[in-house]
Amino acid sequence: MDLKNTLTASIQIYKPISLVWKIWNEPEHIAKWNAPSDEWVNEKIENNLIEGGGFLYVMAKKDGSERFDFRGTYTEIIEHERLAYTLDDDRKSLITFTGNNPVTLTEIFEPVASLDLTMQQEFCQSGLNQLKAYAEQLI
User: Fold this and answer.
1) How many angstroms separate the CA atoms of 10 and 25, rounded?
2) CB proximity list for 10: less than 8 A, separation 6 or greater
3) How far is CA 12 from the centre of its chain?
4) Which family does the UniProt entry place this protein in (predicted)?
5) Lowest mean pLDDT among 30-39, 105-114, 123-132
């Protein structure tokens, strides 16, 4: 996968890899963590986890001031190791999962060129922080 001008966010999650993979990929779990803060919600989540399959997360601020679709197609899936996808605007991302309790989850992504890079980095890192908090409170 050829990524250009990337940003990276990473976390360590103190749970087994099988649980982290499940939380990352299953819509009922995604709905619980996929937001950078409490002011955001997921209005719709679809995830067809196969190579060539797609995903759609419709995200919105609770006050209605912002809304966007995050949609892409999986280009590589190696269970418990990595996911690669291409977004509808042709930007690419790679997610890696290394280790087992703790799992290091790293997201490398091509940012939107016209948007503030620091804001995009913080948005992504905040989402991963929410994932960690959700995962680690599960039994």
Assistant:
1) 17
2) 104, 105, 106, 107, 128
3) 14
4) Belongs to the AHA1 family.
5) 30-39
- Lookup: tokens for 57: 């997360």
Sign of CA dihedral 92, 13, 54, 62: negative
Model pLDDT for residues 5-16, shown as the tens digit of each residue: 899 999 999 999
**Angle, nearest 10°, between helix axes 17-25 and 117-137?**
120
CA separation for the pair 56, 45 (Å, rounded): 6
CB contact at 8 A, 88 and 71: yes
pLDDT for residue 35: 81
pLDDT at 53 (0 to 100) = 98
Token pair listed for 30? 């995604």
Contact (Cβ atoms closer than 8 angstroms) between residue 125 and residue 5: no
Rg (CA), the chain: 14
The CATH homologous superfamily of the domain defined by 7-36+75-137: START domain (3.30.530.20)
CB 34, CB 26: distance < 8 Å: no
Q: What are the residue ranges spanned by the domains of the chain?
A: 7-36+75-137
pLDDT at 1 over 70: no
